Each structure stands twice: as C-alpha cells, then as structure tokens.
C-alpha cells in the first residue's frame, strides 16, 4: 500500500530525515514511535505529499506519489496536527465538508460517523466551542468517515479521554481487519503495543528498526534502543540530524 | 471543483468575517455617504473644499462621493476579506487538511477565488442599489438616464475594486500569513492613492476603475480597464499555481 524507497529530505537549518525505507501493507497497523523531533511528522507529511523528497521515492497504491491521479486521494484518510475543521461551523457541518472534499456523499456517511464517535450530542455545536478532546474526536471522525483504504494519523490519541481512546482503538483494529493499511505515530507505548502489528522506531531522522512490544517493559526497551543508536552514531562521529 | 466551491461558500457565509465584511462594505459605505451629505447640507466649508466634484447636493455629488469611498475604503474591505479567505488556512493550520484530497489544491484556490468573486458581485450590486435608495430618501428625485448609467458604473467599480485586491491572495500564499496579507491590502490602497496623486491615470491598473467612474467614463479607455482585469487574472493564476506547488516545509 505505502512504500518508502530510501527517502531523504533535509530542511534548511539541518533537520530532516535520511534514507527512510519501510512499507505498510493492507490489513496491518504500523506504529511509529520516537522522541520529539525524531522526524515522525516529517515522515507522515512525505507519505501524504505535503513534502516532496529530495532523494528516493514514496509509493502509494503501487505507484509513485508524483504520478498518482488526484482521484486516488479519495481512498486516503489522514489527520496530521490540526483537524480539517473550521471554528465557525458546527460539528455536523464540518463532517459534511470533510466528506464533500473527499468525494463521499455526506447524506450516507455523516450520521453514521456522528454515532460511531459519539458526537451526536455535540452535532449542532460550533467547533470553536468544543473541548480539545472533542475537537480531536471530530477530526478523527472527519478523517475516517469515508472508509479510507490507507489511514495516516499523527498522535491520534492526543487529548482523548479513556473512553475515546478505546473508540479509536476499536476503529483502527476493525478497519485494519477489513483490509485498510494504518500508519500511526504515538507517544503512548502501551497503547501502541496494544494495537500495532509492527512498531517502527525512529531516532534523529532515521528509522532504526522495529521494537519488540511483547516484553513486559516496553518503555525500557524503547529507551535502550534509542540510547544504543545515539551511542553508535557518536562512535561513528556522526552529527545528529 | 463543485464540492470545493460549496465548501468555500459555506465557510464564507457562516463566518463572522464574511458578515462583518459585507456589512462594512454596504452599510458602512452608505452611512459614510449619509454623513458626508449631512455635513455638506449643513454647510461644512472644510469638507466642501475637500470634496471637490463630490460637493454638490445632487445625484452627481452623491455618486462621486460613493466612487471615492469605494475606491479607497472598498479596496481595503475587499482586500481584508480576501486575505482572510486565503490566509486563514495557514493561520488556523487547516492547510494540512487540504492536502491528500481528491480535490487538488489549485482547484481549492480557484474555488476560493470564485466564491470571493461571486460575493464581491453581490456586495457591489447591493451597494449600488443602496446608493439608489439613499438618493431617493434624501430627495434627489427619480434618476435620469445618466444617473442610471452612473449607478451601473458604481456597481462595476465595486467589482473592479474587488478584482484589484487579487494580489492579496498571492501574498497570503507566499507569506502563509493572514497579517501579511492584510498589510498587502493596505499597501494596495496606498499605492492606488499615490498613483492617482502622481497622475498615473488610466494606465495605473489599481487606480483606473476609480478614475473611470469619477470622470463619468471619459478619462479611462476600455483597454485600460481591461488591464485591471488582466492584472487580477494574472494574480489569480499565480495564486492557483502557488497552491498547486505548495509544500509544508516551514
């Protein structure tokens, strides 16, 4: 579904990502974890065409992103940083415009989406009057209501209450079971361990392998891997990205 | 494309910016014209001297005042609303949500400009009708054919003034800043005013529409007016191209 072939991008000022290579297949949930500034959001932006790589190729649905017809984006659902929702519109209206822009029929998807994310009591409330957690739920509903085959969510459990975290988990596992490919980034290691089929570790702009989440102390395993990577780089005399 | 236009129209209609912009351009202009008329009727010498051709208490005076207010205040009003239509996506951060959609970003930019143009036409026609109503209320009597023609030119002036603000959309995209775009709208007003004072005349696209109306259509040729539209079209095309090539790299 998604494949990165040695993708690199360097920003002015030095930060960036280097030789990213991985794939996400239909039916699997792949989680991306790393410290702040490791490059997780940059990787996701590259996957969604928000950034163009300096080197390497991003492939989606079997072909390079650069030649993908715009209509194919209707099969993608994404939430990166800020939900596509406008403060002056109600929750229902925001879901309507999200479905219109993704080529879906609002009459068939919006009501179901409000119910699935338990947003019905808030449906007529303006987005600007929602709490942070309810905004996030609206954003997730807007990103997923058109049944995308490829899902990219950056820190989706941010600001969610425990009940909403369970909703999110159920949504992602169900959609993966139905054949969607899911890429999520997260800081919550135990949450990731619960839903992800594979966990990719990212440090200082590079993917440094997968994390085994079957052990009892995932957090400790995570920090050891990051520390080892930092030490290896220091030994090789590399300047961190 | 159709979906993007519907979405953009909904955003403008429901936003306080759209409402306040419309009220300021229509009711604000009419209130100002009413105030100017009252001051002239009361014999305010300073204003009479400043108003020049607009100092007479008849249809011609009212329409000359309207043209001056529209060319300066109207340009600022249209410019600020256009700055918001484009710049808000960057300021609100919603631009990330406008990637990875089956509607291309150049289509979204075009939809924004289309909705802006439709809104500007509606505002301009409403304002011209409001001026007609104001003149009738003041008691200037039924309009003669040349007054109807001048009212028509006033409506066209509103639309051309909105077109003159087009560079604001491009500046908002380049700077990714709502405030910078509002600054650009103010700069356009200043450039247009300085252009008029410097005597640039009809070849100055920013000032040509106002000169055309104030001279009752005599001082500006159709070619010169077409240049104003060409400028607007060029900046609209630049804006769409910039949206198509946009990257979230800063």
What's this, in brief?
The complex is a heterodimer of chains A (241) and B (250). Chain A is an alpha/beta fold and 241 residues long.
Topology (SSEs and partners):
The complex is a heterodimer of chains A (241) and B (250).
Chain A lengths: L1 E9 L5 E9 L4 E6 L5 H8 L7 E6 L2 E2 L11 E4 L11 H11 L4 H11 L15 H13 L5 E5 L7 H16 L3 E5 L3 H7 L2 E6 L2 E5 L7 H18 L6
Parallel strand pairs in A: 3-8, 3-9, 6-7, 7-8
Antiparallel strand pairs in A: 1-2, 1-4, 4-5, 9-10
Helix pairs in contact in A: 2-3, 2-4
Chain B lengths: L1 H13 L1 H26 L3 H7 L7 H33 L13 H34 L6 H20 L2 H9 L2 H20 L10 H7 L7 H23 L6
Helix pairs in contact in B: 1-5, 2-4, 2-5, 4-5, 4-6, 4-7, 4-8, 4-9, 5-6, 5-10, 6-9, 7-8, 7-10
Plain-language structure description:
Chain A is 35% helix and 24% strand. Chain A contains 7 helices and 10 strands. A 6-stranded mixed β-sheet of chain A has the order 6-7-8-3-9-10, with helices on both faces. In chain A, helix 2 (91-101) crosses helix 3 (106-116) and helix 2 (91-101) packs parallel to helix 4. Chain A is globular and about 60 Å long. With 250 residues, chain B is mainly alpha-helical. Chain B is built from 10 helices and no strands. In chain B, 44% of the residues are buried. The A-B interface holds A 11, 45, 48-52, 70-74, 76, 78-89, 93, 97, 100-103, 142, 152 and B 3-4, 6-7, 10-11, 14-16, 92-94, 96-104, 247-249.
| Largest interface, counted by CB within 8 Å of the partner chain's CB | A-B, 33 and 24 residues
Main sheet characteristics of chain A: 6 strands, mixed
Number of helices of chain B: 10
Helix count of chain A, per DSSP? Answer: 7
Please indicate the percent range of residues of chain B in DSSP E strands (runs of 2 or more).
under 5%
Uncertain stretches of chain B: none
In total, the number of strands of chain A is 10
Name the average pLDDT of chain B: 91
The CA-CA distance between the termini of chain A, in Å, is 28 Å
Strand-pairing-aware structural class of chain B: mainly alpha
Low-confidence stretches of chain A: none
**Helix/strand structural class of chain A:** alpha/beta
